[in-house]
Structure formats: C-alpha cells, structure tokens
Amino acid sequence: MSDKASTSKLMEDLHAVVRDAEALLKATAAETSEKIREARERAAESLRQAKAGLDDSEESMLKNARETVDKATSYVKDNPWQSLGIVAAVGVIVGLLLRRRD
To answer: Count of alpha carbons within 13 Å of 59, Cβ hemisphere only?
Structure first.
C-alpha cells in the first residue's frame, strides 16, 4: 500500500473513531452517576483534542500536497524537454515490464 493510501485510510479510520466516540457520548448523556459523568468529561476532552489534531494533520498534508504539485508544475514548465524525456523513459520501462508479464 502506498504512503498516500495508508495515510488516507488512517485518516478515515480516525474520523470513524471520532464519530463513534461522539455517538457514545450522546448515548450516555442521560446517565447521571458520578463515575459516568467523569468518564464522559474525560472522553469529551480527549475527543476535542483528537479532532483538533486531525484538523491540523489534514491541513498540513493538504499544504504539503499543494507545494509538491506546485514544485512539479514549476519543474515541468522550466524543463519541458527533460520532463518529456523522463516521461518517455518511464513509459518505455512500464511497457517493457508489462510485456514481460504476458
């Protein structure tokens, strides 16, 4: 699995955990015992921190992705012939590898 796919899967899983925790907090809202109230408060605080961390992580990843795309675009614009050569070489290699599979 690629880094991008595993990161995406991790983010989806973390969002699912946050949704489940929110649902649990709502489901136990009517419980009034002291221990449950304290547990709910701790869980709610942890949930707030997890959401903030997820938001920060997502923003950071999006920023890095945009910077990478901008750098790649700039490189291709500054070096069109080298870029074309690289793409052609990769195409030949992929073609040879696919041909070997048959």
So the answer is: 6
Query: How many residues can be counted in the chain?
Result: 102
Write down the pTM of the prediction. 0.46
The CA distance from 10 to 19, in Å, is: 14
The sign one gets for the Cα dihedral 83, 88, 94, 96 is negative
Q: Tell me: the pLDDT tens digits for 19-65?
A: 778 777 777 777 777 777 777 777 778 777 877 877 778 888 889 99
Burial code of 75-86, b = ≥16 C-beta within 10 A, e = fewer?
A: eeeeeeeeeeee
Domain boundaries, the chain: 3-101
